[in-house]
Structures are given as structure tokens and as C-alpha cells.
Amino acid sequence: MPRGTLIRNAETGRIMADMSTDEDVVIAKGGRGGWGNTHFASPTRQTPRFAKPGTPGEAFELQLELKLLADVGLVGFPNVGKSTLVSVVSEAKPNIANYHFTTITPVLGVVHMPNAPSFVMADIPGLIEGAWQGVGLGHQFLRHVERCRMLIHIVDVSGSEGRDPKEDFRIINEELRKFNPDLANRPMLVAGNKCDLTTDEQVEDFRKFVEEQGYEFFPIMAAIRYDVDPLLNKTAEMLSTLPPVAHFEPEPEPEEPAAEVFAFREDVPLSAELQEVLWDACQEHKVEYALALGLIETESSFNTEAVSYVGCYGLMQLNPDYFPADLSPAENIQYGVAFIAEKLDQYAGNVGAALTAYNAGHDTGNREYAEKVMEAAERWREE
After folding, report:
1. Which CATH number do you get for residue 114?
2. Residue 98, pLDDT score
3. What is the DSSP letter of 151?
């Protein structure tokens, strides 16, 4: 995965991790393993016909968003000289031609300074009005600006394509602000390119316009590297005082409604310990507590020692041909709740079908047993 990739939850948009370092990140935890039938083998039961299923792990649909790691981002309209500048100050070789959107993916170049640390410059593809809404692939380009420590706004001061340089400057700044208000406060230098195609008066007029808004202005001719060094020196000076490249912290998961808390019920003829085991099993397997009480009442009348004429035993009347024969009352509850949960899932939440299958092994269509359990469950809800 490329460095600088943001991992988001595709459903909620929540940032789960920022892969801008070498640190390993766990996005989804695996499930809990089950026990196969060999776990329950014994000298008298060498091939058990039952097992304990595991629990599934976490699953998310993810959105991967690459935000380049760069110190300086070059922004501006298409064909103003961004690619030309990065090509003459670094070893980067972007495509350069006299038409719009020659650059369609960001290009990184390392600028080596003689008396200052080197820095990474990103040639961001040209922006146009409406970029913050996605016009001209604006979202794909603007997202790379968010990590940059500072910006260099390149403007064609000659207006060689029939646009007003001042209006170009205003539009790009407004697009940055609308995309992310924080970008409006990002440190910025302004480079007026193509000075050889205009008059000194026009350059000075644009300088005055920019400096009145609080920005430093540098007239350059990128194609012949004219007066580029003062711009680079000022960039290196500013970078020495700025914080490192932005790192996005994982966003907390939205708070879920407070879960119900176990409370001992004196009207339930089970010990506090077994009531809590039943409650926890119901929470884990998403089975209604009242339904589980109704099931136990119908199966065993809350008798932990109950054994049917066919050998089913315990509170949940588990068949020893399919479940371990020596389960404690707590384990009997855990297996039984897991089994009814499995049937509810198998029959898509149809309680009548699931209860019938719990009792008969499959859905016979006869709802006499199921209705008895549901009547008991209703009483427990009311109580």
C-alpha cells in the first residue's frame, strides 16, 4: 500500500488509519476459533458428532484514499508552468506540453538546497473553477494538497490564455477554501510565471495586488530558471519553521446506544451466576433474553438436572448425540443459546421456524412447540 494512504470506513467515512509511517495497523480483528469434534473425543466417544463453532471476525468495506506526502504543493490553473518549475528544480520529469491537463497525476520531485535541507515538491495537476465540487477531477487533485506543509501558487502573470491573473488568483484560493477551510490558512508564496511575455508594469501591478493580501510575490521565468532561486530560498526558510507533514489521526467510532446491563431477577428460578451466564450468552449471540427464558422454561422448567426419556439433558435439553454429554449447567446454557441463535440465522429470523427446528431438528411446519415457547417468553417480557 503506498505511503500516505488513508483508510476509511466506506459506509461511515470514518478515518481508520493513516498509512504514512512504517508502523503496522490492525484494521479488522479476526474471529474466535471454535472447537472441532476431535476436541471432544474420549475413550468412549472416539468420533463425536458435535463441535463448538467459532465466532466471526470483524468485516468492513474500506475506502483507500492516497494523499501524497510532500512538503510543498504547487497549485494553479492548468498550463501556468507548475510542471516546468518542478522539472527545473528537481530530477522529476513530468510531461510538459502547451495544452491543458498535460499533468493528470501528481508528480513528486526532491529539491536539493546548497545550504538548507532538501524538500519534496509536488506538482498538483491544474485546478479549474468548481474543482472543490469535483469539476475537472478536482477532488482527485485537491486531496493531495491537504498534507502539504505549504503551497506555492503559480499564476500566469502575462494572461497568455486570455484570463485575468488577478481573477485566476482569486478563483484558485476560493477553490482551496471551499474544499477544506484549513487550506485557506496554509502558508503560501505566490510565483508570477511567464514574466517575459508581459510588461514590467503588469508584473508590478500584480505584485501590488498580491502583497496587499499578505502574500510574498516572486516573479519568475520557470522555463529558463530565471529568478527561481529566491523563491526556493524563501521556501526552505519557511519550511524550517513549519510543523512536519500532516498526519491524520484515526477518528473514534460513533458511540452506540448504551447496552442493557445485567440485573438479577428474583422471579427467575436460576442462581445469579446462571442468570448472568444466560444474559451474556444472549448478548453475544443476539438472542432475546425473554425468548431464552421461555425456551428454558418449556424445555426443563429451570431444572438443571432434567433428563428427557430420549436422554436430552440440562436446562436447554441438549441431545448428547450432538453436544458434549458432560456439560455443566453454565456450559449447557451457552451451547443452547448458540444453537437457537444458529437456527434463527438459518431461518432468517423466523422465530417459529427456528424454535421448531430447535426441538425437532428441522422445521416441520408444526408450531405447537414454538407457540408454547413464545407464550412463555411473552410472560417473561411482561414480568
Report:
1. 3.40.50.300
2. 47
3. E
Contact predicate 245/20, CB 8 Å: yes
Sheet containing strand 15-19, edge to edge, reads 15-19, 5-9, 62-66
CB neighbour list of residue 172: distance below 8 Å, 6 or more residues apart: 75, 76, 77, 127, 153
pLDDT at 8: 85
- 62 lies in which domain range? 1-66
Residues 225 and 297 in one domain: no
Q: What angle do CA 344, 345, 349 make, to 5 degrees?
A: 55
Closest alpha carbon to 358 in 322, 326, 382: 322
H or E element: which one contains 344?
Answer: helix 329-346
pLDDT at 300: 96
Residues 47 and 92 in one domain: no
CA-based radius of gyration for the chain: 34
Residue with the three cell numbers 529539491: 111
Establish if 340 belongs to a structural domain. Answer: yes
- Please give the model's pTM, rounded to 2 decimal places: 0.55
Asked if 58 contacts 69 with a C-beta cutoff of 8 angstroms, the reply is no
CATH of the domain at 356: 1.10.530.10
The cell 524538500 sits on which residue?
A: 119
Supply the pLDDT for residue 30: 86
**What's at 135, amino acid-wise?**
V
Spell out, as residue ranges, where the chain has pLDDT lower than 50.
96-104, 128, 131-139
Question: CA–CA separation, 167 vs 82, rounded Å?
Answer: 18
Residues 201 and 76 in one domain: yes
Q: What are 270-278's contacts with CB under 8 Å, separation 24+?
A: 270/296, 270/302, 270/315, 273/330, 274/304, 274/315, 274/329, 274/330, 274/333, 277/330, 277/333, 277/334, 278/333, 278/337
CA distance 292 to 312: 17
Rounded Cα gap, residues 261 and 88, in angstroms: 67
Cβ proximity of 182 and 105 under 8 Å: no
Q: Kindly report the number of other CB atoms within 10 A of residue 51's CB atom.
A: 16
